[in-house]
Design a protein that fits this description.
The chain has helices spanning about 15-30, 45-55, 65-70, 85-95, 110-120, 140-150, 155-160, 170-175, 185-190, and strands spanning about 5, 35-40, 60-65, 80-85, 100-105, 130-135, 165. The protein is about 45% helix and about 15% strand. Helix 1 crosses helix 2. The model has no long low-confidence stretch (mean pLDDT about 95). The protein is α/β, with parallel strands linked by helices and about 190 residues long.
């Protein structure tokens, strides 16, 4: 992977375990000469991650909607900063600029980004590995819900396996480097979706 998109929160809850995981992720990104692509903010986990990459000499590429720049939450010290018109363009450009995606702990926005690119993967719109950095079990219940979706036959097991998970940043990046992406698109191929 040459660039990893990271979805994460504009807030930081003060968890030292999360801060340590962010620092470790920044280290692995920089040590492997991978560019960071992220939401362009200077606040919360976003800002911590970008600063951690930059202080290690790495490349941080931000993508932020104009209305958030106008609220002065954009990081102006990045390697590159792309200002777009809206949140939809932000996600699309972030996806276009990367070849792997990691989701860190966050709120509604983080989950929305994660599920949209996961849906795009399931639909065959990209082939980027998607990882969840499950720091301190933050996403345990969400991952259990995905297993319920499989049990209840709303999600195919092969598509559930598209979500790579680890609590360790090094292990997660290694999983992403070595995975083979094979979504099962058969569920919609023979159906009229119009």
């Amino acid at each position: 992977m040459k660039a990893i998109c990271v979805f994460c929160g504009a807030n930081f809850n003060g968890d030292p375990l999360l801060k340590q995981a962010v620092e470790q992720l920044a280290q692995i990104i920089v040590s492997r000469d991978i560019s960071l692509v992220y939401g362009g903010g200077k606040v919360g986990v976003m800002g911590i991650l970008a600063d951690a990459v930059l202080t290690r000499g790495g490349k941080a590429i931000g993508v932020i909607p104009r209305f958030l720049m106008d609220k002065e939450v954009g990081h102006t010290g990045l390697t590159e900063l792309h200002i777009v018109d809206n949140m939809h363009q932000r996600k699309q450009l972030m996806n276009d600029l990367c070849d792997g995606i990691i989701t860190l702990p966050g709120g509604f926005g983080t989950l929305e980004e994660f599920f949209e690119v996961l849906t795009w993967l399931q639909l065959g719109l990209h082939n980027h590995p998607i990882g969840v950095l499950n720091v301190g079990g933050f996403y345990d219940l969400l991952l259990q819900q995905m297993d319920v979706m499989v049990e209840q036959k709303f999600l195919k097991p092969v598509n559930r396996q598209l979500v790579l998970t680890s609590g360790d940043p090094v292990e997660l990046v290694n999983l992403m480097d070595n995975c083979k992406i094979e979504p099962d698109e058969v569920w919609f191929r023979d159906k009229n979706l119009t």
